[in-house]
Specification:
- By secondary structure, the protein is mainly alpha-helical.
- The chain has one helix and no strands.
- It has one helix at residues 3-33.
- The N and C termini lie far apart (59 Å).
């Protein structure tokens, strides 16, 4: 592999990891805020 392809692969991996961290942080921060919501409400 050439240097350009290593740089491209590294950039893609950084973007994937950053997107994962962003999404998981949004998921876990929403769970903390909605703990006292109507999750236990029965229909």
């Amino acid at each position: 592999m050439t240097l350009t392809s290593w740089i491209y692969m590294g950039t893609v991996w950084v973007a994937i990891i950053a997107l994962n961290v962003f999404c998981f942080s949004r998921i876990f921060s929403k769970k903390k805020k909605t703990d006292n919501n109507t999750d236990t409400e029965e229909w």
